[in-house]
Specification:
The complex is a heterodimer of chains A (about 575) and B (about 350).
Chain A lengths: L1 H47 L8 H7 L2 H34 L5 H11 L4 H12 L5 H10 L11 H26 L2 H9 L4 H30 L2 H7 L7 H11 L2 H30 L20 H27 L17 H8 L1 H34 L6 H12 L2 H11 L12 H26 L2 H9 L4 H29 L3 H6 L7 H12 L1 H25 L7
Helix pairs in contact in A: 1-12, 1-15, 1-16, 1-17, 2-12, 3-4, 3-7, 3-9, 3-11, 4-7, 4-13, 5-7, 5-10, 5-13, 7-9, 7-10, 8-9, 9-12, 11-12, 12-17, 13-23, 14-23, 15-18, 15-20, 15-22, 16-18, 17-18, 18-20, 19-20, 20-23, 22-23
Chain B lengths: L3 E10 L2 E11 L4 E5 L6 H9 L6 E6 L2 E4 L12 E4 L11 H11 L4 H14 L15 H13 L5 E5 L7 H18 L2 E6 L2 H7 L2 E6 L2 E6 L1 H6 L4 H6 L4 E8 L2 E4 L5 E3 L6 E7 L4 E3 L7 E10 L4 E8 L2 E7 L11 E6 L3 E4 L11
Parallel strand pairs in B: 3-8, 3-9, 6-7, 7-8
Antiparallel strand pairs in B: 1-2, 1-4, 4-5, 9-10, 11-12, 11-14, 12-13, 14-20, 15-19, 16-17, 16-19, 17-18
Helix pairs in contact in B: 2-3, 2-4, 3-4
The chains are: A mainly alpha (about 575), B alpha+beta (about 350).
The complex binds adenosine-5'-diphosphate and magnesium ion.
Adenosine-5'-diphosphate binds next to α1 of chain B.
Chain lengths: ~575, ~350
């Protein structure tokens, strides 16, 4: 009798689970449809039907304007160059750090991975200060050192832009390539060694070809990040009249009239298409990624660099100094500098900018706004991530790959495009008016950054054997209960990490905020940008330094909290 | 074609010593197996032979050439060794042909010679018709043979195999055992084979090294280690075993907790451990029996029965019986004689009597 009764209950529960899954899926799909798919499609349609009927007039207008052509060219050149240099830097770094006996490997790994979390505009600010042709600190230093008549570097050039883009986006490639290298079965390389190949020959005949899919993916990732970037070209490019597609789009939006909006959509469509096509292409080699049987207890074999050990260590140290230490130190130093024309001596030192950032009402309220928006985006984003991870890894519900796909596309879409599309559709035209509210920013942040959280949770999920859950199921616990009792505790570190991964980029976000903020919802990124460009570089530097400190503290916290398993 | 001398090799990872003073000479053309439980240091020893790990101390030479010592280190690529990895390590971006040809390409062997040699080896490992396939189009067993072909193609003096069969299913594993043995005989090379599977060790080896916690417990032919295990660990690891505690008194071993005894003429005195293999226990008439007990469980295995006999409170032994020979019923009293048993000194704790 008893067993019959419980059987009946479990059937009833069974059908209930099914419904619950669908409710979640439909809710997530609906959210993405309304706030991501519809706006992006509208953007596309609008660019071809500017006044309600089909017309390529806007395209003709935009692309007949030389400035825009130059912007397109600049975008592709700098993006392409950053991609090439980024990979050329990242691969050897990843190899040295992951596969050799170079000194200080763990330190360097942490350092390079950490720069991934630094807002790119901080780099722009630093290099502007170091390499501007009139008063760049480094320029002056080199002029004095070598008695040069002219500044050796000019940051306001395509080369300058490329340099800053590279130095801030190579970590993307570094992380992707390092992960792939860690995953590779080390005996594949050992087999080459025992076959008679030297370490170098092994690198070129086995390691490199096996890594190719990841290298291509890493390269394209850097390319998309670089062409979508607004913070760096707006700070470095603007003074030198070097425009990119992102800066042109925002200029057009700032014009404010219909024509401006139309023109910006036309450019945005170009950028979106480029980014999404590239990301699509980059997934093709990934799908072909070689699957190999992996043995137990294999550890990466470490290449003995022999007499090159010190050389490699020295080279990487120099690189780290140039790319990480000098820029950060510059921003930090600038925040204490009274007169920017003079070097930072005790006389020229002041705390007033730090005072400003902790006392000025506008800055404090922007900070609050940023924290609130980032908190909401991270929390909602993580909720979606957890459900998605469960659906993807534990069920075979038919539609589960739709939201997954949409979230991936959202993250690949350039920020300017997301923001522009939201502005155009969410200001009442379709019955939803959230323009000028914090909601629109939270939504934009989620669309752009949710994927980071999702990846973290999904990968944790795939590492938990389903049998752990099945054991709970057989003990009689339902779907929700299992989630709460078994899954959440096991993946908590990844959940915490995922939350931070969404929170951090939202906290200092600039691009989307620039388009979406209103008087009441100004964010930290926008505040900093305004100071940097119009008022006081020192105040901006103090803000940037504060952001850096927050990011690093969170990182260390995250590392402690998750017992070293996570940090970014 | 290769003699390997290992003298006083030790290996530590940090504070943990995983190999303690390994001393041996592997003879030319010998099939050597390193047998032991997981984590005992077999792979480490093999990787030292290959040159992937450097020993903490000691000297290693191959054919009289020192390849490892305090001052000398010859890297793996200079040692002319063939190796088959547990994960096969077949390069997924190269065809079967290219995988196998790789060691010859490194040696700058002329193209036509490469082609001939590779095809010959593919013949040996039964993969001729798969030369142009990519590894992803092969089964596990075929990949394993690619790895074997690649290890053999350059005619190494020494072949190392690290649990090469552990990822294969039971049937294939059995076939591959004989194939590997055949190839070794045909080519006459020295083989060092690592496994935790005693059957593999027994069927293929000339000499087996039984290792536990980084120490060689016994070296001997398969028959030696099975019939004359040097200590309880070896006896227990190779084959099945019953342990009974006892005490030597007046030419008999008085079994503890039982009022039964076994005849004994060996040199040991005092507390001893008696080890009996299940297949050495036979049912006999009461008059000539040495042990008696009650049949408590029968597990049917097909060709034989695996039985549990209760000798006293909490004391059970396993024995093998043959379904055709005896018609047994649970609970019936059994009388048994022993065709063989081993006696070791008992230091109080069962199972720990090993070399350290
Ligand atoms: N590179 C290493 N670093 C630290 N410990 C290791 C390393 N390689 C092996 N060990 C340890 O040495 C012991 C022996 O390992 P191994 O030789 O792989 O054992 P086996 O192959 O017999 O299973 C194990 O406890 C293992 O954890
Ligand atoms: Mg092993």
């Amino acid at each position: 009798m008893a067993s019959q009764k419980s059987a009946a209950i479990s059937t009833k529960r069974g059908s209930f689970h099914f419904d619950a899954k669908w409710i979640f899926i439909i809710a997530i799909i609906a959210f993405l449809l309304v706030f991501q798919v519809l706006p992006l499609i509208y953007l596309l349609v609008r660019s071809f039907f500017p006044e309600g009927h089909f017309s390529l007039e806007a395209f003709a207008r935009i692309y007949s304007y030389a400035l825009n052509w130059t912007a397109l060219k600049n975008t592709i050149i700098t993006g392409g160059a950053a991609m090439i240099f980024g990979v050329l830097i990242a691969f050897p770094l990843a190899w040295l750090v992951g596969r050799t006996n170079m000194y200080g490997k763990n330190f360097f790994r942490t350092l390079f991975v950490m720069t991934y979390m630094v807002p790119p505009y901080v780099g722009a600010m630093a290099w502007l200060r170091l390499l501007n042709p009139n008063a760049g600190i480094l320029n002056k230093f080199l002029m004095d050192l070598f008695h040069l008549a002219e500044a050796p570097f000019n940051i306001y050039t395509l080369g300058g832009l490329t340099w800053v883009l590279t130095s801030f986006y190579y970590p993307y490639a570094f992380i992707t390539i390092s992960r792939a290298m860690e995953k590779m079965d080390p005996s594949l390389e050992e087999a080459a060694r025992i076959s008679g190949a030297s370490p170098l020959r092994t690198l070129f005949t086995v390691t490199l070809p096996l890594m190719m899919p990841s290298i291509v993916a890493a390269a394209l990732l850097v390319f998309v990040a670089a062409i979508s970037c607004y913070g760096i070209p707006s700070i470095v490019g603007a003074p030198g009249q070097i425009h990119t597609v992102t800066t042109r789009i925002i200029d057009y939006v700032y014009i404010g009239n219909q024509e401006g909006i139309t023109d910006s959509t036309v450019l945005a469509v170009f950028l979106m298409a480029l980014a999404l096509i590239v990301l699509y292409v980059s997934n093709i080699p990934l799908k072909r990624q070689y699957i190999t049987v992996s043995g137990k207890s294999t550890r990466p074999n470490i290449v003995d660099l022999g007499k090159w050990r010190w050389v490699a260590t020295l080279g990487v140290t120099l690189f780290a100094i140039v790319v990480v230490v000098i820029p950060f130190a510059t921003v930090f130093a600038t925040s204490f500098t009274m007169n920017m024309g003079k070097p930072l001596t005790l006389d020229n030192m002041t705390f007033k900018y730090w005072n400003t950032i902790f006392s000025r009402k506008a800055i404090i309220s922007s900070t609050q706004n940023s924290i609130t928006a980032a908190f909401l985006a991270a929390t909602f984003g993580l909720l979606v991530s957890c459900v998605m991870a469960y659906l993807l890894k534990r069920t075979n519900v038919k539609g589960r790959h739709i939201p997954d796909f949409l979230i991936t596309v959202g993250s690949g879409t350039p920020s300017v495009v997301i923001a522009l599309a939201l502005i155009m559709t969410m200001s009442g035209k379709f019955g939803i008016n959230i323009y000028n509210t914090m909601a629109i920013m939270v939504i934009a942040y989620m669309i752009k950054y949710m994927l980071m959280g999702m990846r973290s949770v999904v990968s944790a999920f795939s590492q938990i054997s389903p049998s752990l859950e099945e054991a709970a199921q057989i003990s009689g616990s339902g779907w929700v209960r299992r989630f709460k009792d078994i899954i959440i505790p096991l993946i908590l570190p990844s959940i915490v990490a995922g939350w931070f991964l969404i929170f951090m980029p939202c906290f200092y976000e600039l691009t989307m905020s620039t388009l979406l903020y209103s008087a009441d919802t100004k964010t930290l990124g926008v505040e900093l940008y305004t100071y940097q460009t119009y008022h006081s570089q020192q105040t901006a530097s103090a803000l940037a330094s504060a952001i850096l400190i927050v990011v690093m503290t969170m990182n260390i916290l995250l590392n402690k909290l998750t017992k070293g398993k996570f940090s970014i | 074609m290769s003699v390997i001398s290992i003298s006083h090799i030790t290996k530590s990872f940090g504070d943990v010593q995983v190999l303690k003073d390994f001393n041996e000479v592997f003879q030319d053309g010998e099939f050597i197996t390193l047998l032991g439980p997981s984590g005992c240091g077999k792979t480490t020893m093999l990787r030292i032979l290959a040159g992937f790990e450097r020993p903490t101390s000691g000297e290693l030479s191959i054919d009289g050439v020192v390849v490892n010592s305090d001052t000398v280190f010859i890297p793996p690529e200079k040692r002319e060794i063939g190796m088959v990895f547990q994960s096969y390590a077949v390069w997924p971006h190269m065809t079967v042909f290219d995988n196998v040809a790789y060691p010859l390409k490194i040696k700058k062997v002329p193209k036509d010679v490469i082609k001939k040699k590779v095809m010959d080896i593919l013949e040996v490992v039964h993969l001729s018709q798969y030369a142009d396939r990519l590894p992803s189009q092969l089964s596990g067993g075929q990949q394993q043979r690619v790895a074997l072909g690649r290890a053999l193609v350059a005619e190494p003096k020494l072949l190392l195999l690290d649990e090469p069969l552990s990822n294969l299913d039971a049937k294939l594993r059995e076939n591959m055992r004989y194939e590997i043995k055949d190839i070794q005989k045909k080519l006459g090379i020295t083989v060092v084979y690592v496994t935790h599977d005693q059957i593999e060790a027994m069927t293929m080896s000339d000499r087996v090294f039984v290792i536990n916690r980084g120490v060689v417990q016994q070296v001997g032919s398969p028959e030696d280690i099975y019939k004359r295990p040097a200590n309880q660990f070896v006896a227990d690891f190779v084959g099945k075993l019953n342990f009974l505690k006892g005490k030597v008194e007046n030419g008999r071993i008085q079994l503890k907790g039982l009022s039964q005894s076994l005849p004994y003429t060996g040199p040991l005195t005092g507390d001893v451990m008696v080890c009996i293999r299940p297949e050495n226990i036979h049912i006999t008439p009461k008059e000539i029996s040495v042990l008696s007990g009650t049949l408590s469980h029968i597990y049917y295995l097909g060709n034989e029965n695996d039985c549990r006999v209760q000798l006293g409170d909490d004391i059970f032994i396993r024995m093998s019986t043959y379904p055709d020979l005896h018609d047994l019923k649970l609970g019936q009293e059994l009388f048994m004689e022993l065709s063989d048993f081993l006696v070791y000194p008992d230091d109080g704790e069962a199972h720990t009597k090993i070399l350290t």
